[in-house]
Amino acid sequence: MARWLGAVRHGRPGLAAAGGAYVCASVKEEFGIALLEALSAGLVVVAPATGGPATYVEQGETGFLVDTADRTALAAASADALDLAGGPLRERAAAQGRAMVAERYTVQAMARALAGVYAHATADQERPLRSGLVLGAS
């Protein structure tokens, strides 16, 4: 069964508490914040196979990547998502999605990753930077 919720105010995760699937029928998502919110809520997702979701949706585990321009493929992926969300692997799929978002996409996780990038970028400095100088140049 599908329910159209229409516009939902931010901060209402209880709407997804019953479980199920979230289908993003966009042709492409550069990042897909709504998909991450759905995964965080324990939903199985259907997402475009192009763009950002391909880097975090685990095919057949937390969701399904599909060519959303292909209506038949989108319908099949949606049915697969509902089967996963309503089947015996539902809790595992929900836990995997929640864990991935918590490990990689919370503000704290992203800040740690960015701090690591800065630490790596500045670790090999032989001398302080001055205007007009390039690191490693003689």
Describe this structure in words.
With 138 residues, the chain is mainly alpha-helical. The protein has one domain: 3-Layer(aba) Sandwich (Rossmann fold), CATH 3.40.50.2000. The chain has four helices and three strands. The protein has helices spanning 33-40, 71-86, 90-104, 107-123, and strands at residues 21-23, 44-48, 63-66. A three-stranded parallel sheet has the order 1-2-3, with helices on both faces. Helix 1 links the parallel strand 1 (21-23) and strand 2 (44-48). The N and C termini lie far apart (68 Å). 22% of the residues are buried. It is an enzyme of class 2 (transferase). It comes from Rathayibacter tanaceti. Residues 21-99 form the Glycosyl transferase family domain.
- Main β-sheet description: 3 strands, parallel
The portion of residues assigned to helices is 40-55%
pLDDT average, as an integer? 85
Q: CATH topology, which one?
A: Rossmann fold
Rg is 20 Å
- The N- to C-terminal Cα distance equals 68 Å
Order of helices and strands: EHEEHHH
**Beta strand %:** 5-15%
Task: Please give the oligomerization state of what you see.
Answer: single chain
Strand order of the largest sheet: 1-2-3
Shape: elongated
Indicate the structural class. Answer: mainly alpha
Instruction: Return residue spans where pLDDT drops below 50 for at least 5 consecutive residues.
Output: none
Number of domains: 1
Which CATH architecture is right? Answer: 3-Layer(aba) Sandwich
The CATH homologous superfamily name equals Glycogen Phosphorylase B
Helical stretch tally: 4
